[in-house]
Design a protein that fits this description.
Elements: H1 4-7, H2 14-34, E1 36-42, E2 52-53, E3 56-57, E4 61-68, H3 70-75, E5 83-87, E6 94-101, E7 106-110, E8 113-117, E9 124-125, E10 145-147, E11 152-156, E12 181-183, E13 187-196, E14 202-203, E15 213-214
Antiparallel strand pairs: 1-4, 2-3, 4-13, 5-6, 5-13, 6-11, 7-8, 7-10, 8-9, 9-15, 11-12, 13-14
Length: about 220
């Protein structure tokens, strides 16, 4: 038995064989780049949502996640509250954070809390139920107001005390060359499931407004 009999039948032409091979390779590449990916989360920036083990935030390589790339490539744009994998505006590295603001939003950080003004919302204090007790009321930023441009998104980590995110332009400081916003084309997909370790398998929630409270002014909430 020779090698070709393993991959090509005797009555199949070479042209048909190479056409099938090309289609198969195209399908594999399509799935690889546009349907889903597996990523390993490194660091504590999304703790306790990700990489929390025995009540502690893990600083090394931790949980594996399934990322849905098809959703944003072919169906719709990212929405507030969704946990996304993206490429940093200033580096070529992949990061994972939560969408806080979408195009047209104004997001304000005042006295450790986050407020949103969107086209369909009055001024709203985000409940952020996904934050740990040590992070609640402790969201601080160099900029107090973020006006999200068209085609861009504002992303924060859930572990506000340890996340290097839009509040510092994904660097250690915001400069003229560093932006706090991420272009839509940089967002690769939505994190759907934790798939490893087996004891931690779960679906990830993306609800930003579980118990939001609308207010008229920032002063009313202080």
């Amino acid at each position: 038995m020779n090698f070709t009999s393993w991959v090509k039948t005797n009555d199949q032409s070479w042209g048909s064989f190479f056409l099938e091979l090309t289609l198969l390779l195209g399908l594999v590449l399509f799935i690889r780049f546009y349907v889903f990916q597996f990523f390993r989360v490194s660091g504590p920036s999304m703790c306790p949502t990700l990489n929390q083990f025995e009540e502690n935030c893990y600083h090394g390589n931790g949980e594996f996640i399934f990322v849905n790339e098809f959703l944003y490539s072919f169906m719709r744009n990212p929405e507030r509250g969704e946990i996304v994998v993206f490429r940093s505006p200033s580096t070529d590295k992949n990061y994972i954070k939560r969408v806080i603001g979408i195009p047209g939003d104004t997001v304000e950080v005042v006295d450790g809390k986050v407020y949103l003004t969107g086209s369909e919302y009055e001024r709203t204090e985000l409940p952020e139920s996904y934050l740990s007790e040590k992070n609640k009321g402790r969201t601080f930023a160099a900029l107090e107001k973020f006006i999200v441009p068209e085609g861009e998104y504002l992303l924060f980590g859930d572990n506000r005390l340890e996340s290097l995110d839009a509040r510092r332009c994904f660097e250690f400081d915001c400069t003229d060359s560093n932006t706090p916003f991420v272009y839509a084309k940089k967002i690769r997909g939505r994190a759907e499931f934790v798939i490893w370790p087996l004891a931690k398998i779960r679906h990830l929630t993306h609800d930003l407004f579980a118990t939001s409270t609308k207010i008229d002014t920032i002063e009313d909430a202080q």
